[in-house]
């Protein structure tokens, strides 16, 4: 009996060490033998084929009258041809609100009206998409992104995150932002605010994700603490799960912090972190007053994006399929459309089912 119990406990321990990913995995060598440069991939995710909707019809000409000459209150896509505008709107309907149709964002009796908050949000999201494709090719290259990259036919992307709720003011029950397992940190005990630390703010004001100090002892130039490394590990765990990869996808096992021996993908990730930071800080946060309460987190901030929002478990969203190539309107300059400070009450808009709970963001940097 004792032997059976011991075997059972050993098996349980092995399963525990395997974490939550019990699916079949495949591994591939990514460097010289014995260097630890192996990639481990969850097969069912890596091999799964993503649905990529075709264009609504053959892409129209970019010539002809400009959209701003034929439509009212056109603040973003006015530089495109009128035919390109209609084509892009048809695609957006399929990407974001296939069941609701055009009325999800528009008043059918007054298409120029901004009375629905969803139209104001969609306009800002168009600016965001154009900004990513136009200014962040260091990350998205010529593949680009569309609304489908994140939304996949849903009004609210499945993978999003918000600021964690404030902890209790007293000692009892106050976990200081840790020991509260969430998907964003791989259900670990690491800090739950790491995404807020690294994926919001100004991308030009650096907030490097560092674990290793640059010297053996603390100094005025080296103040990296053990507590800071926990945030770094938390965000790296998120990146790993969001892209379906392990550390050696970007880093060299010989020295994780050394740029000269890192893989080229680390540079892509460096830009990706800053792209997400700008997307959350400049585009999504500016819509705080536009969103209703049921599309905000416990701290009143709108749902934000992360690596998982686009990647969804793959190192290239949708396996790298370049669907943005068919949509000329999504590659232009972002434009200067602004978000109103206040909205008429009540905001009359479609009421979808309560959105799914958050999943979160991040990416390696140095």
UniProtKB/TrEMBL annotation:
Keywords: Electron transport, Heme, Iron, Metal-binding, Photosynthesis, Reaction center, Signal, Transport. It comes from the Bacteria. Residues 345-366 are annotated as: Disordered. InterPro entries: Multihaem_cyt_PRC_cyt_su-like (IPR023119), Multihaem_cyt_sf (IPR036280), Photosyn_RC_cyt_c-su (IPR003158). Binds 4 heme groups per subunit. Residues 1-19 form the signal peptide. It holds the Pfam family CytoC_RC. The keyword Transport applies. PROSITE patterns: PROKAR_LIPOPROTEIN. The keyword Electron transport applies. The reaction center of purple bacteria contains a tightly bound cytochrome molecule which re-reduces the photo oxidized primary electron donor. NCBIfam families: photo_cyt_PufC. This is Photosynthetic reaction center cytochrome c subunit. It comes from Novosphingobium capsulatum. The lineage of its organism: Bacteria, Pseudomonadati, Pseudomonadota, Alphaproteobacteria, Sphingomonadales.
